[in-house]
What we know:
Oligomer: single chain
Order of helices and strands: EHEEEHEHEHEHEEEHHHHHHHHH
CATH architecture of the largest domain: 3-Layer(aba) Sandwich
Number of domains: 2
Strand order of the largest sheet: 2-1-5-6-10-9
Amino acid sequence: MTSSEGLSSAVHTVAVLILDRVLTFDLGIPLLVFNALPDEYQVVLCTPEPGVVPTYEGFSLNISDGLDAATRADTLIVPGYDLDRPLPQAALRALRRARAEGTRLVSICTGAFALAEAGLLDGLTATTHWREAERLAERYRAVTVDRDVLYVDEGQILTSAGASAGVDLCLHLVGRDHGAAVANSVARLAVAAPHRTGGQSQYIERSVPHTSGQSLAATREWALHNIAGPLSVRRLADHASLSERTFARHFVEETGMPPLQWLLTARIDLAKHLLETGDHGVDEVARRVGLGTAANLRLRFRRATGTSPSSYRRTFTRR
């Protein structure tokens, strides 16, 4: 484990707040993602009372850093923990102080309950594991709980859904900091999807699974290889040898989103990559990703990212 002593100001410090009976899968996610970029991030583990901390899985961790590390961090992450254990007031005070000092606050899975208990999610939209979403909404009425998404980015405060959705959120943070190309390289090291389509609603247990037994993965792969051309639901359905209605229903069941929304996301992701790694003009990028004109690309890109293609390129072009 990394100590907080001698932290370099040249790197972005990520502190992970270890609470009693922490979920070790959630804890491992920021270690996996951010330690993949040692020149950019330094990860510190901290806890309200340094020493031995029990995990939810039954073994213990020896954490040497206290809450001072949390308040000195650039990003503070709260992994999931046992919700039946009371939260130390010192941890809640540290979270509030971090918010006041501009620290980026992140929760993974049930870590959202700690942010909510500290009052940091009031008036915001947040998410957590779908099994605990109703509990979060009932306990903290000032929080708008989105049960379907993989993560919510509210700027300074970000929350993820259960377990592996923390990977999606941490990759999103790397993308925010360093661009999609760097996030994609970390995703490859983690053997994870750089951008998982759909939300956690596709993972919620259903009494009767609605599936045809026919995967549309081949059609999605074909669409990505032909993304520069005109792609309609009819053309995708023809490739899958299904009616449009049946195709659209199965597509949502598999990906969590309608076909054209998935396609637009794929086009924006490719546009990001081209803007970061090449010197193509906006017209050429628009043509290559199948959005036709520069004006259409600018419109769609700004809606998806909040910025223009030119501004994105200036921010994230690889040196």
